[in-house]
Structures are given as structure tokens and as C-alpha cells.
Amino acid sequence: MRAFFTDEWMNSSFFNKLLKESLPVGRLFGGSLEDNSKIGVTTIRSDSMPCVLGNYNGAHCNENKGYEFLREEDPSKEVEVWEAGRCSAGVPGYFQPMHLTHKKAFFEDGGLRYNNPVALIINESKRIWDTQHSPDIVLSIGTGFVKSQEQQTSTATSFFRNRSLLRVGRHFLASLCGETTWQNLEGVVTERYRERLHRINIELEVDEAGLDNPGSMNELILKADRQLLGSTQILEIASILAASQFYFELDFVTTSKRAVVCVGRILSRLEAGSTSLIDFTRKLKDGAFLVPNKTIKCVPETVLLNVVRGLPYERHVKFTLPSSYDNKQMLDIRIQLHSQELEGRPISSKTV
Known about the structure:
The protein has 352 residues and is of the alpha+beta class. The protein is built from 13 helices and 18 strands. This is PNPLA domain-containing protein.
């Protein structure tokens, strides 16, 4: 009865307090989260329009997206981090919708339209970076799924299950399935793009985690560990993420009738002197780059010493291509980690 009269099963005020205490202080745009990571939060406005709140700029200038990117002209009116989280977490029936005064509207759970927002994310990434290149990786992390049960054929059960409102309810809930959204995406992209799609999700025997049942979390954590820790899927994703931290810069080329000699550097996107770069470089001591016709260590001692001293990661490399090398063929530089090979971002040999 509480949910009927107050439009909430849980205490929204207490939830707001928890978010304020748990999330970073400051504004989502122009605040503590404004760094190289682009963060977008999905929500649904009271007029049923899907919206995105983000810590980046630019994408909101485009029209006809099927959703709206919310940006204030006055930076002082931008939403706080906790407000963005609250807008996205306002599950109808559990919490009241979040009212944003500057927007003059109420907002609630973005999962009502984008329970798995992978298509929206791909669209936003193209608008932010204005590129037609495929991403290094598209990683989607689910919250668990239950395999469909066999259709029940009992006459008594079917009578109630087949009432129109219940059918509509079942179909609506099925439309929110993040796993189905992912499978639909895999079916419409090219084969080359599909190779870059990765989905992490654990299989559940039943719907084990009620929204109001935090006591089930420990068992879910153990189940996730059993299914994922040390799996080939996790190792592959880790390797791809490692490879995406590098890029190749060509310094100069010498040519002859027989061969093309390329000299360049493999560089890291991580900031020089940062703890992230130092730790990452140390973990790559046993890794190797696979350049044309040779294999070289990722981290010779001199490179590691330079990184620890605060210098950028820089691995000099020299390799040879035959003069007959097809200009239209892509030049692959790979990284080998945990005995797995994966493709880095290729460059055209015509450019070389």
C-alpha cells in the first residue's frame, strides 16, 4: 500500500542521502569527473524522452538521435554527480522520480528505454570523436541472466497468463532484456566490427538478486568469481584493453628496390609519471610486440627505468617490408600477453 499512496516502495530521501555520501562531490560536467574518460548516464524524462547526462561536450549539437543530450548554457546549473546517478536509478515503484529544477522536469530509470545502452554508446562515441574507425573494443557488462524456461502448457496457468494486461507486461519486461539487445547488435554489425564486441554476463539459475535484497550479494559475488576468474574471456578482454593503450608513430622511411625500412616508436596513451603507467609497464615485462618479421620485448630494462623516472613510455622499433608489399594491405602491429595474440590499431602500408 505504501507504494500506491507515496509512489515509492523505498525511502527516496534516504536514498538521496546515500548517493550524496557515496558518489564524488561536484558537478558531472566541469567538476571532479572531467578527465579523459567520457561518462554518460541514461535517464527518462517525464515526457518519455530518453536523455543522456554527460561529463563531456559536443554530441548534444546533433539532432535526430532518438534521444536528447542535456547540456546547460550556464555551467553553474549543471547537475551534480549524485543527481545524475539518482536520475538513472529512479526505478518506478521503488523510488519517486528525481526532479531537476533547472530542467523543469522529472527523471527516472534510464533502463526503461536503454537497459543495455550499447547502441547509444556507439552512437555517442562517433559523435564525440567524429571518426568512422571501429573502436578497439566495445565492452558490455551485464547483471546476470536467467535462461528462458520451457513454455508452461497448463490450462489453469495459461488462462491467467494469457490475459491481455499480463501479456503486455511480459512483453514489456522482455523488451528490457540486455542480453537480447546485445544479440540483436551482433546480428546487424559487420564481421570485423563483431570481433570487437565483448559481453561479460553470468548465468543465474533463478532471479537471485531482488532489488531490495542486499543479503544476496555475497553469494552473487562468489558465483561471478567462479564463472569469470581466470576464464579465457577475461584474459582476452584484459589483453585487448592493454593493447588499446598503445599506438605507433612512424618517424622515417628508407626505400630501396628490394625493401622498405620503417623506423618509429610504440607509445603509450597513459600519462608520463603516473602511477597507472608505472604499474602497467611493470606488468608488461613478459609481454612482446609482434611487428613485421620480428618479435621485440615490450619492456626492456632501459624502458622500465625511464618510465619509473617519470618519462613517457617509448619503445623504438625498426622493421622491414618487401618493396612488393601491397599498398592496400593493412600493417598489423600486435601485442602478445598471456600467450594470446591480438591486433592493435593497424595503419595502411600506403601511408608508410
